[in-house]
Amino acid sequence: MCGRYTLVDPRSLANRYARFRFPKQIAASFNVAPTDPVVALCDDRGDEAETMEWGFPAPEAGAATRRIVNARSETVADKPMFRESFAAQRCIVFADGYYEWMTDGRHKRPFYFTIDGGTPFAFAGLWMNDGPKRVCCLLTTTPNEVQARVHDRSPVILADDEKIDRWLARSTLDELRSLLVPVEAARTSAREVSARVNSVRVNDASCLAPAEPDRSLPLF
Predict the structure, then answer these.
(1) What are the backbone dihedrals phi and psi of residue 136, each rounded to the nearest 5 degrees, phi first?
(2) DSSP three-state, residue 89
(3) Annotation says 145 is catalytic
(4) What angle is formed at CA 161 by the lines to CA 183 and CA 73, rounded to 5 degrees?
């Protein structure tokens, strides 16, 4: 799954994606968490990115505060909660890194993943209307060889412009499914980081500090 990510350098978005228009004020974040505002571009907005809230509302009665932040790519076309959005309400969500946690005995060890050395990239996402606002969730898939050392799921990352265009276009079901694969392992880097990122209240550069020596074990 993907439950936290970063947008450390929002200014780099305009350089990487010069063809898109971004909001003038985008706050940097070292720890984007569910229900936070995220920078996204929806399939009905042309080249204009916007901010929206991360997380679909849970459909269960009495679950008004619970958010669904990920959808499994293997079942997204069939699940009642996601199939309409998958068919006609797709988006990309911009990031420059993300976190996954490895369970190690009683501890959960956070790792930070980047693509192409920290270049901004796009998650494949879905959007829907939740009252007067738009909300989104991210697609997940099987991991590549690097990601699999930490977790058994990975976000779907659209690291190339051609894949972004296909995701946002009126593509066929088979064309969409062909995009729901892990990013290449050769483009993926990971390192263990401080357990401070475990708290959603911590949102500063300390989230990316090296893991504490007494908890860090070789992995990569």
Answers:
(1) -140, 165
(2) coil
(3) no
(4) 45
Q: Count Cβ neighbours within 10 Å for each residue of 59-72 and write b for 16 or more, e otherwise.
A: eeeeeeeebbbbbe
Are 139 and 180 contacting, i.e. CB atoms less than 8 angstroms apart?
yes
Nearest alpha carbon to residue 41 among 103, 106, 120: 120
The tens-digit pLDDT sequence of the chain (220 residues) is: 689 999 999 999 999 999 999 999 999 999 999 999 999 999 999 999 999 999 999 887 555 568 999 999 999 999 999 999 999 999 999 999 999 999 877 788 999 999 999 999 999 999 999 999 999 999 999 999 999 999 999 999 999 999 999 999 999 999 999 999 999 999 999 999 999 999 999 999 999 999 987 655 556 5
The active-site residue, picked from 100, 137, 192, 207, is 100
Stated pTM of the model: 0.94
Q: Is 2 a catalytic residue?
A: yes
Give the residue among 119, 128, 120, 121 at the shortest CA–CA distance from 42: 128
